[in-house]
């Protein structure tokens, strides 16, 4: 059973909110009383999620946003503050995978695309969130890295570069903003049962066998397990936690 939190009167922003870990986290924030900003590039899926939450009496704002475009990110934060008046918590979750590639054969297009969303997107979101939070003197940000931000694996150099970069951003910004009342952490999910992972497994017949070999818990993680960790990092229960890269990976990085 996950712990419960009371985020009443607070505003939470989640990017990549239309499915998977982002959707589960947005729902968890909403169920804990927060007003929630749902951001994604998938307008149709955003609308469906918003309808579900508003029908349950939740406060919701949807924003279509490509996080690799800083101007769109700036408008997202502006809309958030205009609509709700503040921003207390953010989960910078939007991210993509690219096909596995020999490091010598990786295309510049793939490298730029995965880093443009996974790294530059987190940088842009955090930058504009901090501009608002520093005026408030408080806030909590969780950036989504990956077990790929903690280890190296063959054929994943470009993706892992983006996720290692997220941890560097997180640690440096955490040190800078801790004295200003803002906590910044990263979460490092393992292999989670999400649409992105389902697509990957469908294309790589032996991938599940490899995952189970390296994942001591013997199963995929679930999106609500990531949501539980994000909410804890944003809660008063983690008030002395900052600059961490928290593995939630079924033990993958423990060996």
Describe the structure.
There is one protein chain. β2 (35-40), α2 and β3 (60-64) form a beta-alpha-beta unit. The two termini are 27 Å apart. The chain has 255 residues and is α/β, with parallel strands linked by helices. The mean pLDDT is 94. Helix content is 46%, strand content 15%. The protein has a single domain (11-192, 223-245), classed as NAD(P)-binding Rossmann-like Domain (Rossmann fold). The relative contact order is 0.14.
Placed side by side, the strands forming the largest sheet appear as 3-2-1-4-5-6-7
Overall tally of structural domains: 1
Fraction of helical residues? 40-55%
What structural class results from the helix and strand content? alpha/beta
How many extended strands? Answer: 7
Largest sheet: 7 strands, parallel
Low-confidence stretches: none
Average pLDDT confidence is 94
- Work out the helix count: 9
Approximately how much beta-strand content do the residues carry?
5-15%
The CATH C-level name is Alpha Beta
Sum up the overall morphology in one term.
globular
Radius of gyration based on Cα positions: 17 Å
Q: What is CATH's topology name? A: Rossmann fold
Protein name: SDR family oxidoreductase
InterPro entries: KR_dom, NAD(P)-bd_dom_sf, SDR_fam
Family: Belongs to the short-chain dehydrogenases/reductases (SDR) family.
Pfam family, one: adh_short_C2
